[in-house]
Write a structure and sequence with these properties.
Layout (H helix, E strand, L loop, with lengths): L13 H6 L6 E5 L2 E4 L3 E6 L5 E5 L6 E4 L1 H10 L3
Antiparallel strand pairs: 1-2, 3-4, 4-5
């Protein structure tokens, strides 16, 4: 017999998470990625005029920038 789990889920969609964060600090660069713009270490040119962001974390995480967000990146970083 399986017992049901009780309690509340802490699951949030990326939209819910984004709505609680400062839009001047956190930017949704891709449908699956939300980044703190103060933690961008490097901007790497990528295929077809797109970019990857190398983040300032222990792993040096690389985050893709969607084509739609590339224009905002250019404005943000004055490229």
């Amino acid at each position: 017999m399986c017992q049901g789990l009780e309690g509340e889920s802490t699951y949030k969609t990326i939209e819910e998470l984004q709505s609680n964060l400062d839009p001047d600090t956190f930017w949704r660069v891709h449908r699956s990625w939300l980044v703190n713009i103060n933690r961008i270490k490097e901007v790497i040119p990528w295929f077809k005029s797109s970019f990857q962001l190398k983040m300032d974390d222990k792993r040096g995480t690389e985050v893709p920038v969607s084509r739609v967000q590339t224009k905002r990146l250019r404005t943000l970083l004055k490229l």
